[in-house]
Amino acid sequence: xxxxxxxxxxxxxxxxxxxxxxxxxxxxxxxxxxxxxxxxxxxxxxxxxxxxxxxxxxxxxxxxxxxxxxxxxxxxxxxxxxxxxxxxxxxxxxxxxxxxxxxxxxxxxxxxxxxxxxxxxxxxxxxxxxxxxxxxxxxxxxxxxxxxxxxxxxxxxxxxxxxxxxxxxxxxxxxxxxxxxxxxxxxxxxxxxxxxxxxxxxxxxxxxxxxxxxxxxxxxxxxxxxxxxx
Length: 230
Hints:
Mean pLDDT: 83
Order of helices and strands: HEEEEEEEEEHEEEEEEEEEE
Number of helices: 2
Number of strands: 19
CATH topology of the largest domain: Immunoglobulin-like
Keywords: Disulfide bond, Immunoglobulin domain, Membrane, Signal, Transmembrane, Transmembrane helix
Helix content: under 10%
Structural class: mainly beta
Distance between the termini: 67 Å
Organism: Lepisosteus oculatus (Spotted gar)
Pfam family, one: V-set
Radius of gyration: 25 Å
Number of domains: 2
Signal peptide: 1-20
Protein name: Ig-like domain-containing protein
């Protein structure tokens, strides 16, 4: 508790310099991670000409709220990292702090891990920080394509679940003719922060053909399709 209080006080009283200050450097300011993977946010700091006592903190800002994830302290006598991650899936590398490495590792990334991460260091009463933005994406399930025969028309239903961000849905046949503009597509955001997509295509086909529903996740550059012979 006292360590947390100390760092919070330092955070409030320190002279905050501009983000990206050369004393503290986040190596990759924009990171995209796949849900369920591990991601490392690399942050390094330089102590040339500064005292060896260093306090710091990792902060996550998401949906307007800022949460403390880790506190750390470095001195010639002590290297200490305190974990405040509720999930227990994030960690630092205490032995690396001595070398100016305060990188953060998040395991089994979830949608709620997305947001802005600030690497904040206090040296000699002055604060230095740099930030990285973590975007979490999720791969859609293989689409399920079903056919319902109706009078004088064919109705096709395409469903794919648990993806992020919102998918691009395309309908195309084996003659490269597109029906995407004729389809009605609904996206539902689940409590997990993932999208379920349901697209319906209803039309009269004058000849036999193979029709495909394609679900595209643009950030992942991933497309999944299901086809049916009519």
